[in-house]
Amino acid sequence: MSTPSILILPGDGIGPEVMAEVRKIIDWYGAKRDLGFDVSEDLVGGAAYDKHGVPLADETMEKAQQVDAVLLGAVGGPKYDDLDFSVKPERGLLRLRKEMDLFSNLRPAQCFDALADFSSLKKDVVAGLDIMIVRELTSGIYFGEPRGIIEEGNERVGINTQRYTESEIARVARSAFELARRRGNKVCSMEKANVMESGILWRDVVTEVHQAEYSDVELSHMYADAGAMQLCRWPKQFDVIVTDNLFGDLLSDAAAMLTGSLGMLPSASLGAPMANGRPKALYEPVHGSAPDIAGEGKANPIACILSFAMALRYSFDQGAEADRLEEAVEKVLADGVRTADLLGEEGVDPVSTSQMGDAVIAALDASI
Ligand code: NAD
Ligand code: IPM
Ligand code: MN
């Protein structure tokens, strides 16, 4: 088998800072586990705009289509706030998702025992939490037409369209049911079928796919607003949540806080299987470029590190090595190592981004 290939797109703000720690881990796997990767690096977001005048060059898009996995840091930042909408950094990421057809975005929210006390929710609400949000990623209001800002009479009108086809809903539903079968065997589908036609179709199609192919999995439905409330009230009632692009964006940031920090939440964006049988894939932390702390060495690299663990599991068939990396993160947290976002107002001194990466490497060393 040829060496698996990875394209790294560090992006903007804290993206390059957290990605530097992932590079150390990739190198560790090559040196210590004989698991070499063919790694290349390129620009996305504001960094690509600065060089090419677009947030994603066509050559980079082509490379992304060819590799076994893309790892992305984060895009965006205040420097680019006034750019034309068509070349904003975020458009580079959206183009990757759309053209790679990464329709199933897995956002696992797991509360590590060592952080159960730190979460802003009560310990017994979050301790042991392990849920998976499956967010539809290539359609819905992010991409629907018509869209734009138009003049109407003497005022401007902003327009976005929520649009879902049956097949778009069915394929993300299947991916949620498949995951549930390997986990707690429960899916909760969230939409707003009470006020949106796309929500009515969503509920119908999820129900049809369930009846035809997955009746062994327990299915429930919830309006997304009530779902947000239930996520805060008693998140352990959920196993897999499947929802649309926009609701999934909001619900996953909320779920991040159940784990203690947005700096903890990884993600995998998966598409259809490639010739080698593995899905086309992009891995990225759920957080953004964090302009408020960028350049200070304060960012928590764990979300990005855990995203690489997901790559080991979903793209490289290395489930045991993914477990090893997740256990290394768990050990570091149990040892009390904390970046600033994982500390309260007082207490121990925080470690830097690179010290956190080094601690994970040390825990990996100790695991062999
Ligand atoms: P953000 O996620 O960048 O930051 C929100 C808050 O969380 C900030 O206080 C930040 O300091 C903190 N935070 C985030 N990641 C952290 C980490 N790893 N360690 C410690 N603290 C962390 O969201 P925002 O401020 O709303 O957006 C900033 C920019 O990022 C915007 O341009 C936005 O569009 C972009 N963004 C990009 C992505 C992505 O690339 N996938 C995701 C979300 C936002
Ligand atoms: C995310 C981000 C993105 C989104 C932006 C940067 C395009 O918030 O990945 O959660 O809205 O999907
Ligand atoms: Mn988001």
Amount of helix = 40-55%
CATH topology of the largest domain: Isopropylmalate Dehydrogenase
CATH architecture of the largest domain: 3-Layer(aba) Sandwich
Number of helices: 12
> What's the overall average pLDDT, rounded?
97
**Radius of gyration, taken over Cα atoms and rounded to an integer in Å:** 20 Å
Task: Kindly estimate the percentage of residues that lie in beta strands according to DSSP.
Answer: 15-25%
The total domain count is 2
Bound molecules: nicotinamide-adenine-dinucleotide, 3-isopropylmalic acid, manganese (II) ion
Count of strand segments: 12
- Unreliable segments of 5+ consecutive residues: none
Distance between the termini: 25 Å
CATH class identity of the largest domain: Alpha Beta
- Give me the CATH superfamily of the largest domain: Isopropylmalate Dehydrogenase
Q: How would you spell out the order of helices and strands?
A: EHEHHEHEHEEEHEHEHEHEEHHH
The major beta sheet can be summarized as:
10 strands, mixed
Apparent shape: globular
The spatial strand order of the largest sheet comes to 2-1-3-12-11-4-5-10-8-9
- Alpha-beta classification: alpha/beta
